[in-house]
From TrEMBL:
Signal peptide: none
One GO CC term, this protein: nucleus
CDD domains in the cross-refs: CID_RPRD_like
Protein name: CID domain-containing protein
Sorted UniProt keywords: mRNA processing
Domain CID: 2-121
Gene Ontology annotations of biological process type: mRNA 3'-end processing
Species this protein is from: Aegilops tauschii subsp. strangulata (Goatgrass)
Keyword Membrane: no
């Protein structure tokens, strides 16, 4: 059994992602394990996000958040890659989402992404 990264496998895993913490953490750990492919992971995540319905976008934002929070000890590669796309994703959900989606965005910006602000200055 190969332990190498496969975009096809990642797409399959993304399709099974749901809002449950265990689902998010399991896929996050898989992504962090494959940190050498972080650019491809983020590119696939970004495409999936922008074609997803709102409910799925929330799960995808939680996944990105978990990856960024838990990959810091392995370097800043995931953070740098996600910072290229996360603002547009947050704006999309805030602008086009319902109150629940907007509240998710507000909480993530306030509690999480504000700590990465120094990286984009």
């Amino acid at each position: 059994m190969s332990t190498g990264f496969s975009a096809e496998i990642f797409v399959q895993k993304l399709a099974k992602l749901n809002i449950a913490q265990q689902s998010i953490e399991t896929l996050s750990h898989w992504c962090i394990f494959h940190h050498r492919c972080c650019q491809e992971v983020v590119d696939i995540w970004n495409k999936d996000f922008h074609s997803a319905p709102q409910e799925r976008k929330i799960s995808l934002l939680y996944l990105a958040n978990d990856i960024m929070q838990n990959s810091k000890k392995d370097g800043m590669r995931y953070i740098h890659e996600f910072l290229k796309v996360i603002a547009a994703a947050l704006d999309d959900l805030f602008t086009n989402g319902d109150d629940f989606g907007r509240n998710v965005v507000k909480r993530l910006v306030r509690e999480t992404y504000s700590c990465f602000y120094y990286l984009i200055l």
